[in-house]
């Protein structure tokens, strides 16, 4: 019976891909509008595609090097499973493919959305939302397809271990984590590269165009405007796609690995099998519910703004509520031990996600006090805007952290059957809570991805001179997306923390396999007791490696982990600063040297700006990304297992808080500026406006480059540690 | 023989206080200059003293509440030692006294320094430096006096434990930590309150005076200028004095407690006694060497700037080099086990401090690339200055963290005799390395405290219209101080991390005493082994409470700890933002409403600005400071011992990195502005200058309010946890 349930997984992922294809065709059938609109869309599309090509070239080189390295480790030194290099490759490939397909759709959809908005708001919404849904469905479809493919392949290829049949599933699930590492590597490059690209263009366009020359956003006289629109696609669409592909797969894979580990000691392979496929099943049903939710988003032809908002929220809420019931059903059908408590863990995850989402909205939306006060601090100039924004961002970390802490404790406590010493089941509960949060990613990502499409549609409308009314409609669509996207963001942030923890637990599991591989069969614990590696518990490993908080190696690792989060942010912030400076100088140069540019008589050199952003991004993204891969390896070689665990947990706790701080400060600055532009405190062009534009510019790399990359960084470091565990257990300096 | 050595401690602290008194009298004998100078100095002095009075009133109320609470805990529920309330009070009192005396000296010295600078640079240096030395000597003198007083008192009052004589010293040393908690509480209030005061005034004065009205710094036409000068005294002098008193005592007390713990299992009370007094002896000899160093700072009458710098560096370097030899001598005379290795740990601490100091200098001084590039980023406006400064600050955390990690590992490794399982000796090594760093605080604090005196002298010279030449000399003195202060700052930062770790270890020790008090004699470890509480090792406690990195309570504590660091910074940043906004509005109002103010015909209402800063500081400082006291108690009540340990270590690792980031970003912004003012990139009044002034304004609360408070926060949370351990071991929710 359970085997038959598994087939839901590949089937629902195929369904998601088919539906994505259908939506894509449907969107392509619409008209792109006037020749000018077509031409602009083509400009943006070519720019975005050529950037992505360039990006994938660099990433391919990195992947080739890593694959060679893994192959040597696996085949030369037998420190790794032989499947590692291939699994790593497919993870990277599918993650990149998700980004590519999402971006392709987005670049086709923007002009069509603008054109549809000429008729009505409702028509604009439908095209933009369904195009966003393509991205959502592609991510979950490809993710789950890849997972089921590897699961079936490894089931078939890895021989049964007669001595210990329970360990086969452990080997399968930890090998599959390698594919997660491929996805994370690709995602980090996409986020960092795309983030630098888009923010360099954005900052450049804003600082010179809006502040110095005083021309509106997306004005065709601004040389950086095409680069800015290309940036929205490569950063906010392709980057986000790769990012969420990574989160989605990471949470499922880590939880499966924990499920395999939770039942290894009992030797009950049937229950182990159920625990491994449970997260996949929840994700599969989540896809079906997302599709239901997407079709539930429909409005009457003459719908008002309020109707649209209601309809959009209805779709996402429907999926989220139904997944609760579905989880109980799946767990019961599967007949997994302790099914009620595990299902409650999933519900806890969902509630935590909603709380984080609400708190994000409260701190960053101009409908609430904090952001309004931030706008007001512009009365005393840009310096107080920056001080207040940083203060706001730092304070805003409180609710999400408390929510996550409550989520960790309760999901662990329920899953462990109210017994804190039942570590493996407790950790499995944390993992499955993260899977619950991301299970309806199909629809939450749709509401997230449709934002940049509406934004680009606005850009197209402005550049094509479609008039005030159309621009207003696309702006309305954009702000609509911002409101509904809050929940999705809450889920993404919360799941990152929980998945980070699950990966940490998987690392311990991988240590077991690594010890096995180098021939260590018995652990001698410090109190003189001997335990077989096969039967050692989490606590035994902790004792064996002395992973307590008084071990200086653990503490050193933690300091390095905290530092890594800051160093990584600093490097990416500086990269944006440098690339933006070059962009500012170029735009100023063009305004100065190309005569008649500001009167609209001469065309600016768009291509030059696109080139500056591309070069900046490609040049700057490699070092910080490689650092994330090198740090856990180096820490392992110097401080061994305790150092690596310290590094991961230090990076997780600092990185998580730092990421929320940066995301919220950036979001609040953005909306504080918008609040002023809505006519408050003097409105557009006032001193207060100028001050809040400075805040917005500083916030750009916060919220779109450094902040979101941090979540990937933390997970990638864990994955690298897992993949390299074989090396760490065999040698370290101290 | 060892008992006779102990007497060096009270004797050298008395000597320090006597010499401070002598320097103070010497300074008072100098002339304050013209009547205008006297009058301005009086204004500043009265403002500062009345602020401090107000501040101490609020702090006294908080102390009264806490003492009542501790008394109930100690006498009512027997959850604490009976000496706790009194020890707590004296710690707070002496910390406050250090700040008061230092500030009193500084406010008398500034006009005299300005007056002396009318004659020569050298004369100005002598008065400013010796007045700074008063502060340095008062801090170390009072600190060590208080420590020896309590040590002797408790030796006499606490009865010998016949069952376990070794535990008497443990009870003494952990009780003395309560006095450290008093000092930390006072220091946190002083830093936060003083920091808010000074930065609100500074930001207000700069934003309206310098940027909007275009009048120079310290111009008497600026209504906030007196408040600004008062702020330098209450924040940079009184705040810093209380802060370093706390660091100094904290490092000695924590190390003594570790020394007592390290030898408890062996039952060798003589060696235990030696380990307890060793840090006090190093500190005492450090005082003597500091005095030597202070007298070594002397120059010829016609000394050039270069000569002065050389002389100042010679003094500090002399003390630092001699302390190395002295340490070996003390350890040998004391006949402590493993004396060579322990002395090497001290040397390691000193080297780490020097590296951190150099790295701080590299990232924040305008003589090096990073700050120069930061100035250059002003070409593209304030937004890029902020982005680059944040990037620079984040990247600058790398070297200090790596230095501290190497310091932790090596000082542990040497002290533990190259055996990582020898935890208590290893931790003692980390503690003694921190003591080494702070042992020459007498002179390093002198070079640090003389900066604000020179700064104020400059303010006095400007307001009294003493002319360009005198102002130039006071500016030179100020920048001289900045260069030599780098090493002192490195020692302070490095010691904070190491002391934080020592306190964590002391917490475990206090758990033992707490269990003893509630009548738990035997620990049942998870593997079934039973250990007597008296004989349990660090690892046994870790196992008993399951303080591993897979325990969700530990992880929850770590998330909360990281969050606390950010929340605390956010609250203090916002407090500065709010108070500064009010100040800006007030200064603008005065410029608008008081006619003739900008022409120098009407006197501004200085008192009003002083009042705004005072109110802002008093109002805003209470909540964040109380949070630091409540967080560990609440975490303990909810998550028990594992949660508290997680909280402390999460707060330590995130807080340490965050503190370096904020201090360095702030310092770099400050000097980037100065670099522009020196005539680079357009010099004063240019667009680049305006952009860097925004950076400097944002950096003010970074480097003088939030950043330095963080180090105290981390230690205060540990001390609170230690003092409240009795409660935590007796009850927790999970």
Helix content of chain A: over 70%
Low-confidence runs of at least 5 consecutive residues of chain A: none
Number of domains of chain A: 1
Portion in strands of chain A: under 5%
Main beta-sheet annotation of chain A: 2 strands, antiparallel
The helix/strand order of chain A is: HHHHHHHHHHHHHHHHEEHHHHH
Strand runs of chain A, count: 2
Radius of gyration of chain A: 25 Å
Task: Specify the structural class of chain A.
Answer: mainly alpha
Strand order of the largest sheet of chain A: 1-2
The global form of chain A is globular
How many separate helices of chain A? Answer: 21
Largest interface: A-B, 97 and 97 residues
Mean pLDDT of chain A: 89
Enzyme class (chains A, B): translocase
Function (chains A, B): Sodium pump that utilizes the energy of pyrophosphate hydrolysis as the driving force for Na(+) movement across the membrane.
Catalytic activity (chains A, B): Na(+)(in) + diphosphate + H2O = Na(+)(out) + 2 phosphate + H(+)
Organism (chains A, B): Bacteroides gallinaceum
